[in-house]
Amino acid sequence: MTVTTALHPDLLKESGQREVFCGLTSIVWLHRRMPDAFFLVVGSRTCAHLVQSAAGVMIFAEPRFGTAILGERDLAGLADANEELDRLVGNLLERRPEIRTLFLVGSCPSEVIKLDLAKAAERLNRQHRGQVTVLNYSGSGIETTFTQGEDGALLAMLPLMPTPEPGQNHDQLLIVGTLADAVEDRLRTLFERMGIPRVTSLPPRRSTELPPVGPGTRVLLAQPFLSGTARALVDRGAELISAPYPFGVEGSAAWMGAAAAAFGIAPATVSAVIDPLVERGRRAIAPHRETLAGKRLFLLPDSQLEIPLGRFLARECGMELVEVGTPYLDRQLMAQELELLPAGTQISEGQHVERQLERVRASKPDLVVCGLGLANPLEAEGIATKWSIELVFSPIHGCDQAGDLAELFARPLRRRQLLTFA
Ligand code: SF4
Question: What pLDDT digit, counting tens, does each position of 283-297 carry?
Answer without folding.
Answer: 999 999 999 999 999
